[in-house]
Amino acid sequence: MKTFVQLRRMLPLGLQSFTEIRQRNLIYVDKTRYLYQLAMTSQPQLLTRPRRFGKSTLVSAFEELFLHGVAPYDGHDSYFKGLEIEQLWPQVPENDGPFYVLHLDFSELLQNCK
């Protein structure tokens, strides 16, 4: 059994990159069902949540999903391997693309506005 200190080191503190979290085998709560549901809606989505609620990680996961899907590529497994979306995404018609992700990063906006 892992100690508290060992588990704490597995938390993705300060990381926003979905692929880096999965590469480093850090703790990731699988909410990819919602990723699928958001991708399948035809309505525009505005994600407004407080700071540190995972919005940037969600957008990073969308980028990975829309770029590479859930199949293995470049000699390694998909970063979605073992996650719920791996079973859901193959149902998406293949020729619907391209998908675009608009990622606006305001994290340093106030620091640069002087």
UniProtKB/TrEMBL annotation:
Domain AAA-ATPase-like: 12-109
InterPro entries tied to this protein: AAA-ATPase-like_dom
Protein name: AAA family ATPase
Gene source species: Candidatus Anaerobiospirillum pullicola
Lineage of the organism: Bacteria, Pseudomonadati, Pseudomonadota, Gammaproteobacteria, Aeromonadales
